[in-house]
Amino acid sequence: MRSRSIKIASLFLLGMGISEIILRLKSAPQDATSTTREVQEDTEKRTLCTMEQLVQGKWTMGAEKYKPPYIPTPGERQQKTCRGFDPSARWQDWEWTPEDHSRCDFLNSDIDSNLFCSLVRNKTIVIQGDSISFDHFLSLTHLLGVPVAPPARVPKDPLRVSKICNGTSMLIGKKDFHLQQVGRIINEFHPDVMILNQGAHYVSDEQLIQHLNSTVIPHIANWQDECVLEKKDCHFVWRSTVPGHPYCTQFTKPAESVEEMETIIATSPQYNWDKLKGQNELVMDLLSRSSLLTEFNILDGYPINILRPDLHGPKKNDCLHTCLPRDNIYSFITLHLLRLWSECGPETG
Ligand SMILES: *[C@@H]1O[C@H](CO)[C@@H](O)[C@H](O)[C@H]1NC(C)=O
Ligand SMILES: *[C@@H]1O[C@H](CO)[C@@H](O)[C@H](O)[C@H]1NC(C)=O
Ligand SMILES: *[C@@H]1O[C@H](CO)[C@@H](O)[C@H](O)[C@H]1NC(C)=O
């Protein structure tokens, strides 16, 4: 039987950061030296940022490096969306820094592939949705060192399977603007992690919610049931949608105020970008009310990448897609989720 309390419990734990609770219990003051002990523990093993802590932050300039994190393969369109990208030049980039970064841990500038691979051993991760989701997939394959050159003719809705971590695990990218093929991908690949998004290809609120509620959520719920039967520790992630940035070519650095960006988006409506904030909220509300789902996680790109009007290319008619080697935040958050899940341990009961 499905239990709503399990879902609430796992959300609660993710929200609070179970490691934080454990650490607090461990270091509960007992004597006068407890303060020093707490500080020591804190520097030795800082707790991971909760997802709530993670989204509160700002973009800060990182250290200079010898080279870019990777070079997009020819044909990956995002190569064209970078302003003055020079593969041989030194590299300096903005890094997402949570407000609480002195108190909690978030790896914001690279993927440690040994760490990543230790967390996904034998697992299959699916990233499915629009072209931004496909970029998330491409970014991860590059950061894990397994880019696959696209075929000369890229199909409109490509499916790409990458063996990662010395072939022990799989990363699957599926372009599927309106999430019509969630059932097919589950049947074909039996994933352990599903990261979905629908949003930038606008449909009305009613259509969006109706489709998610009557098709996508039931597929995910069936998959979650199968995972329980197969004793697999599966996780469902919904990535929120980030609107494009009107007048993007005028920005040369990240913005600091979400409100300011929202005002620009609201006062220059195009491509329904002004409606995406409301749709994100509708979807989150639907997911949290659903009695079918046993678990879900939100990869909330909105408050982070709404601050990146500078991340688009020189072409002013594409203020939605981002410069691929500069936009890896969803990959970093994917690793962060894997770390949070491994701390929580598989659900029991
Ligand atoms: C992959 O295999 C190589 C050679 O066996 C090894 O050095 C490396 O650590 C492995 N990488 C991962 C992520 O398992
Ligand atoms: C991976 O899965 C295979 C078959 O499903 C199993 O034989 C193997 O022991 C697993 N390896 C690890 C490290 O879990
Ligand atoms: C979603 O579907 C359930 C049935 O599974 C139904 O009870 C509920 O009213 C639907 N919600 C919306 C917002 O359509």
From TrEMBL:
<feature type="signal peptide">
    <location>
        <begin position="1"/>
        <end position="19"/>
    </location>
</feature>
<protein>
    <recommendedName>
        <fullName>Trichome birefringence-like N-terminal domain-containing protein</fullName>
    </recommendedName>
</protein>
<keyword id="KW-0732">Signal</keyword>
<dbReference type="GO" id="GO:0016413">
    <property type="term" value="F:O-acetyltransferase activity"/>
</dbReference>
<dbReference type="InterPro" id="IPR029962">
    <property type="entry name" value="TBL"/>
</dbReference>
